[in-house]
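Cross-check.
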Amino acid sequence: MSYDQLAIWWSSSSDDEVEEKENEVAAHEQVSDNVAKRFDLFFAAADVRTQARLQKALDVMHSAIDIFGLEGICFSFNGGKDSTVVLHLLRIVVAKRVLQETQLAQIQAQQEAEGATTTITSPRNSFVSSDLLEEADLEKRVQKQLQRVPVMYFDSYDQFPEIREFTDQCTKKYALNCHVYKCSFVEGVKDILEKLKIKGVYMGVRGGDPYTEDMEHFSPSSPGWPPFLRVNPILRWTYADVWDFLRDCQLDYCSLYDHGYTSLGNIFDTVQNPELWRSGEDGKEGYYLPAYELKDGSSERCGRQKKAHTTSKS
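Predicted model, tokenized:
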């Protein structure tokens, strides 16, 4: 939420709520750009269940890179909250790999200087301080590695403009190697698989999404699709897990979620979640709470409704 959004939200909120939100925005603007450091702090403060889900997500993403390499796996990004979680997890995983490689290089250089010949290896889950590199240097190295991972984004006439704007911002901010498609998902996947020899696709799929009953963290593509491996790092995450991660790590997400949207489809089948509507008091207008205020995750898709519309094609 920006200060402009804060001003709009203020008109229907109490003084205490406004002060709390101002402090939240200020804290967000001062946060470190070191995503690995923010993640490590979040992980350390999390309960055992959350830590297990976080670690599983990282393990799945690491394994896919170990198997296919950065150039052999792509990321399907649609700008929604789940896909955004996977984007930031990918940044974290790449940052941790950069830090581990840097640490190993330093140890090996020191050993060579001392005349040692022992080969040093580092377990994938071993902790490496995010302070090993200067913040700007780490981000530069992370972006260089991220550019090796192709990103698929499917644009369409019925896309929310806020989604399009957010994905464009992410592409520029994180220097993503983004391939924009204006065709069906099947056609786009087939194209990128053939052109870039992709073997696996990171996806922001969670249990409870349509057609996920038989999904695993690693699942082959469906019959009739080009052959590839679906990689689903957050398959076992809940709605609350998603928002705890995004907000506690103070990570970017699409602005629509600050205005009552909880599950984003297209402009013809998505409305604000009625569960988040609040009537105004003392003559103030009603308003929608942000998505992270939804208490019952099973109501996540209550804003998915078919709306009558007409289209024209030139």
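Residues 1-13, 24-31, 309-314 have pLDDT under 50 and may be disordered. The chain is about 45% helix and 10% strand. Passed to J.P. for a second look.
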